[in-house]
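Late entry, evening session. Most of the bench is empty. Finally got around to the prediction I had been postponing all week. Sequence below, unchanged from the version circulated by S.P.
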Amino acid sequence: MPITLDHLRRYAVARSLFKPTTLNRAFDRLGFVQADPIRAPARAQDLILRHRVTNYRAGNLERLYPKLEIEEDFFIVYGFMTKSLQALMHPRSEVDVPAEGPRDWPTARKKLAQLVLNFVRERGEVHPREVDSHFSHGSVRNYWGGLSSATTHLLAAMHYRGMLRIVRRDNGIRIYAVREHGSAPVDVDGRRVRIDRLVDAAVHIYAPLPNKCLADLIRRLRFAVPQWQSELKQALGRAKQRLANAHINGVDWYWPSQENAAGCTVPDAVRLLTPFDPVAGDRARFVIFWSCQYRFEAYVPAAKRRLGYYALPMLWRDRVIGWGNLHVSDGQLNSEFGYVAHQPRDRVFKRELNAELGRIKAFLAIR
């Protein structure tokens, strides 16, 4: 039976929104969860995990992080990942974090980083304030035009480089320790094996992908492996050869070869997704699947917003039919909804929307 766009849409929803499991198993299955600091009504990482982890509560990831086999780091974006995935990316070249641009470290920065590394090794774990107090680094102008602590910038760059790891957070502030990584591959075949495994990990999270989205996803691996950026174009060609594919309505689609894209079903369920959820995060695929556009408007002036500050795409079965804006006030969950066309009138939708709101209240621990 020929694979259709309907098949791929159901497949995208069913494979990503799997039956809830434990937090460790969810990470083993996903490999990576994107992070974002905005709380509306919770951070993106928590909103992603609540659909996939049994009885998950907002803040569980940060609270349990020291006990989990995961790390904070850059993949295609910043987030949380399994240790095995992170190991494929290191050691990285001596460049700054992606937002600061691919600048090589000058000699003075290398020397200072080594002094900080020795200090962290002596202390075991450090708060940025301890480092700042010891070295008195002052301030620098950051990527967004504001002033940030030079200590914060250096520690972030050392973390990205792989010299440090985040052991936990103290009221949201990263606590660092020294990180040791294995050696880099010494030959071309070794590098290609690592790059292909990173490509497969990314495709596993976001499949199925139309051709342009696959190419963009692999280009974004330059954040994961800046040292191998020049080899990513060839990695795209290899990926197309090993992935399952279909040509639908003039578009080539790709997904893991071992998966059946034609045999998926989705439940009668309403799900309010974070804009960064793997199901909804790719804006180009979003348009193809649901014939409507989504715009993230948190940084759009209020008067120009069409959907809302942090509008959550509303998934009904395998269709995005609208969006919701949620906020908590005086211990109560307040919700406003908009629809692409109109609100479904059947009782099943109303029941499932109320069930989703109930799950969100439990997730936020409110009435």
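Two things to note before I forget:
The chain has a mean pLDDT of 94.
Residues 106-180 form a domain with the Arc Repressor Mutant, subunit A fold (CATH 1.10.10).
Will write this up properly tomorrow.
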